[in-house]
Amino acid sequence: MRKKIALIGGGQIGQILAMLAAQKELGNVVILDIPDFENPVKGKALDLMQMAPHGNYDSHISGTSDYKDIKGADVVIITAGLPRKEGMNREDLLKTNIEIIKNVAENVKKYAPDAFCIILTNPLDAMVYTFHKVTGFPKNQVVGMAGTLDTARYRSFLAMELGVSVADIAGIVLGGHGPTMVPLPRLTTIGGVPLTEIASKELIDKVVKRTREAGTEIVKLFGRGSAFFSPAKSAIVIAESYLKDKGRVLPCTALCEGEYGIDNLFIGVPCLITANGAEKVFEIELNDEEKNLMKTTMNAVKKTVDECKI
Ligand code: A3D
Fold first, then answer.
1. Ligand 1 site, residue 272, Cβ cutoff 6 A
2. pLDDT tens-place string over residues 203-231
3. Quick check: CB of 57 below 6 Å from ligand 1?
């Protein structure tokens, strides 16, 4: 039987998620939005069905505002909520998006209690924490998508600066989804060659800074709204690893229970994604400077989580 992917939120990211999931034939896709946006998501679904003959996929795509339609979903990807506008930081979205996430969590718990859940709504780390608290799902069943994107941004900036194939850049960005995130140049390699041996400190610092501000750079260019192609692709990579039991090791926002000295917080860490969900968090031995950066990002995430009062 075909797998089922429920997309909660059918806006900018939701529509690209639907297209990518269909093109990869990950399963049938249901796009759910609020009643006011039921017709637009039905329209997007119909448009994607009409792309199928040239897109070479048989996935069925539908739109709805009724949670009954997500019943039996294998994967739920959540983008419901407001995105940033120019001049806003992610925390400015907290008040509105926390109510939306609580509502989504209650419904996912009721209608798709076995689904692997991937959350994108900002402020990301706090929204994943809230979703996990409200659903009470096991920790391996809930992740946030942020580090997968932050790492993709880091890799693409390095490729652009160094004039090398992005495929040969292996690296990781840890921590919260915001300006305190922690790219790890010390552990980055280009075709097996350590980055620190072929790039100057100035170049590395420039890329690290641009990575931390990458989302804001796009928000400034758009004026209204935030990135959507790359966040959608990053979430699909996580979903695919789960659905196909690929065993990708991806930076995801996962529950830490002592790892990295972090307790009871969802934050970006390297995760093994299999058919069991976020099966394992890998712990890397960090140096003192990196440990300090992790402490700073942990405190930033904790501050936002505390504001959720959940
Ligand atoms: P947008 O195009 O506005 O789509 C959001 C959709 O959510 C809209 O269609 C809304 O109608 C819908 N929605 C609102 N409330 C509900 C609800 N209660 N139930 C169901 N649907 C609802 O935004 P977007 O797709 O550009 O961004 C979505 C979210 O992702 C925002 O919070 C962004 O900040 C966030 N985002 C995260 C990243 C990460 O890397 C984590 C990157 C980019 C955007």
1. no
2. 999 999 999 999 999 999 999 899 999 99
3. no
Contact 41, 64 (CB under 8 A): yes
- Residue 232: pLDDT band (50, 70, 90) is very high
Mean pLDDT of the chain: 97
Architecture of domain 4-146: 3-Layer(aba) Sandwich (3.40)
What is the residue with the minimal CA distance to atom 27 of ligand 1? 83
Instruction: Copy the structure tokens of residue 134.
Output: 């409200």
Ligand 1 nearest atom to the CA of residue 65, by list position: 20
Q: Is 75 in the pocket of ligand 1 (CB under 6 A)?
A: no
State pLDDT tens for residues 35-70: 999 999 999 999 999 999 999 999 999 999 999 999
CATH 3.90.110.10 in the chain: give the residue spans: 147-308
- Show Cβ contacts of residue 302 under 8 Å, excluding neighbours closer than 6 positions: 265
Catalytic residue numbers?
Answer: 177
Tell which CATH classification among 3.90.110.10, 3.60.15.10, 3.30.420.40, 1.10.10.10 matches the domain 147-308: 3.90.110.10
Percentage of residues of the chain with pLDDT beyond 90: 95
Closest CA relative to residue 171, chosen from 183, 157, 159: 183
- Identify the helix (H) or strand (E) that includes residue 77: strand 75-78
Q: Cβ–Cβ contacts within 10 Å for residue 44, how many?
A: 21
232 close to ligand 1 (CB < 6 Angstrom): no
What is the 86 CA–ligand 1 centroid distance (Å)?
16
Which ligand 1 atom sits nearest the alpha carbon of residue 124? 41
Secondary structure of residue 246 in the 3-state scheme: coil
Q: From the CB of 251, is ligand 1 less than 6 Å away?
A: no
